[in-house]
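Dear Dr. L.,

I hope this message finds you well. Following up on our conversation about the binding site, I have prepared a predicted three-dimensional model of the protein together with adenosine-5'-[phenylalaninyl-phosphate]. For your records, I am including the exact sequence and ligand specification that went into the calculation, followed by the C-alpha cells. Please feel free to forward this to your student if that is useful.
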Amino acid sequence: MDLDGIRAEALAAIEAAGDDEALQALRVKYLGRKSDLSAALRELGNLDAKARAEAGARANRVKKAIEEALEARGAALLSQRAGALATREWLDLSLPAEAPRKGHLHPITLVEADLEHLFRGMGYRVVEGPWVEDEFHNFDALNIPASHPSRDDWDTFWLSDGNLLRTHTSPVQIRAMRRFGAPLRAIFPGRVFRNEAVDATHEACFTQIEGLVIDRDIVPGHLFHSIRAILSAILGEEVEARFRPSFFPFTEPSFECDIRRGGRWMELCGMGMVHPKVLEAGGIDPLEWTGFAFGMGIDRLTLMRYGIDDIRWFHGADLRFLEQFGCA
Ligand code: FA5
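The resulting structure of the complex is given below.
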C-alpha cells in the first residue's frame, strides 16, 4: 500500500476507535513491526540514495502523523471518560448542607439535669444504683423485713431469679453508705418500677431522686430547708409546699411533702431522719452519726413545673407533646 493510503486508512481508523484497547490494537497494526509502514521503511534500502532520502522523509512524516493521531484520540477518550464521571458523580460543594434533624432532651431529663446541677452546687455527689436490685437492698436493709406489712405498699415486679426491679431509689442509700461511709452528702436519681394501676399521677415506671445527708447533729430543719430551697429553684417562689407527718420504715420521724400550684395539691416527696437500723445496715454508727433522706418523684415535679395535667403524656408516643420541649 502506498504511504498516503496507509496514512488515510490509519487516521480514519484511529478517529473511529472507541476505547484505549482499540487504540492499542491500531498502534500495533499501523506502527508495529509487521505493519505496512514498517515494511515500506524496510524497502527503503533498495532505493538509490536520493529516492531513499525522499521516501524516508515521507515515511517518517506518515509515522509522525499516525503517532500524533493516536495521542490526540487517546486524550479525547480520556476527557470523554472524565466528563461522564463528572456527570454521574456531580457534587456542588458550594450548596448549603441539609440541616440534620436534631433531637432534644425529654422534659423529665431536663428537670433531672436541673436537680443534679442544683444539688451539686450544694455539695452533693451524684451516685447511681442498679435497676435490678436484690431483696436485701430494696427491703431488708431498709428495715422492711419479709413479714412487715409495709412491703405491700410497694407493688413489686419480682424476677424469676428472686431479684426484683427496684421499687424506689432508697436501696442506693445502703450502697452509698457502704461505699463512701460518713459523712456523706449524695443524690441518687434514676428509674423505679411498680406494678401499679396507671392514672394521671401514677406510672408503672417513673423517676425518683433520692437524697441522703449523713453528718453530726442533723435535724429535720436541715431537711425542710434543703427541700424548700430546691423546690423554689425548680418551680419558683410562688409554689406552696407543706410538710406533714407520715410513715416509712427507714426513717423516724417521717414526713411527706406536698406542693400546690393552680389550686391543686400533689404529693411529691417522702422523707425523714434516717432510721438507726438503716445506718447500721449501711455500716455507720448511729450513736455517732445522724442523717436525713428524701425520695422525690421527678415525673410529678415535671408535671408541676410545666403545668402538665397527666403523667401519661411523658411516655406516650405523641411527638407533638414532646416537641414543645425542644429548643428553637
Ligand atoms: C418512697 O418511694 C420512699 N422511698 C421515699 C423516701 C425516701 C422516704 C427516703 C423517706 C426517705 P413513695 O412511695 O411515697 O416513697 O414515693 C416517693 C415519691 O415518688 C412520691 O411522693 C411521688 O412523688 C413519687 N411516686 C410514687 N409513686 C409514683 C407513681 N406510681 N408514679 C409517679 N410518681 C410516683
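In brief: The mean pLDDT is 92.

With kind regards,
A. P.
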